[in-house]
Design goal:
215 residues, mainly alpha, Four Helix Bundle (Hemerythrin (Met), subunit A), 6 helices, Formintransfe-cycloase-like_sf, Sugar ABC transporter substrate-binding protein
Amino acid sequence: MRDNRDTQQKLTERSCVDFAAALAAKQSVPGGGGAAALAGALGTALCSMVAHYTVGKKAYASVQDDIERILIEAEDVRENLMGLINADAEAFEPLARAYSIPKSDPARARTIELATKTACSAPIEMMRQCARAVPLLEELAEKGSRLLLSDVLCGAALCGAALVASSANVYVNTGTLGDREFAEELEAEADALIGEYAPRAQAVVDAMRAHLRRG
C-alpha cells in the first residue's frame, strides 16, 4: 500500500519533474490513470492554445463565435481532467485497504466490491472528458489558425491516447466485479467511446500530418 505522506500534496500541485519522478517510482499512485488524465489535459490545453491564437484575428472573423465556444468548452474539459488526476489517486487508497482485509473477514468481499466500483468512476469519466475534446479538435482542424495545425495534431494524438489509456483502468476494475450488470454497462460505454472517438482523433492526426507534409 502507498504511503499517505506521498499524497498529502495533491498530485496536480507537483512540478512536472516531481510528478514524473513519482510516476517512475515503486509506488502505486500516480499510475496509469493519473498519466492518462494528464495526457488528456495536455491535449486539451493545446486545443485551448490554438483557440487563443485564433480568436480576435481578422482572418478568422467569420468563425469567432465558434472559436470562443471551443475555448470555453476546452477549458472546462481541461479542468475536469486535472481534477480526475487527484480523484483517481484518492480512489486507490480505499481499494488497497479493502484488499488488505483478512480473507477470513466476511465483510471483505463486499468491501472490495464497493471500493472497486468507486475506482471505476474516475477512469470512465476521463474517457468521457477526452471524448468531449475530440470534436473540438476536429473543429479547430477546420477553423483554427493555419499556423498551429501541428498543435492540433499533437492535441488529437494526446487525447486519443488518453482515451484508450483511461479504458485500461475501467476494464481492469470491471473484470473483477461480481455485479456483472454494472460491469457490463461500464464496459459497453467504454467500448462505445473508444469505437467512436479513437478513430476520430486518429483521423485528425492523419489529416494534419498530411497537411503539414504538403507544406
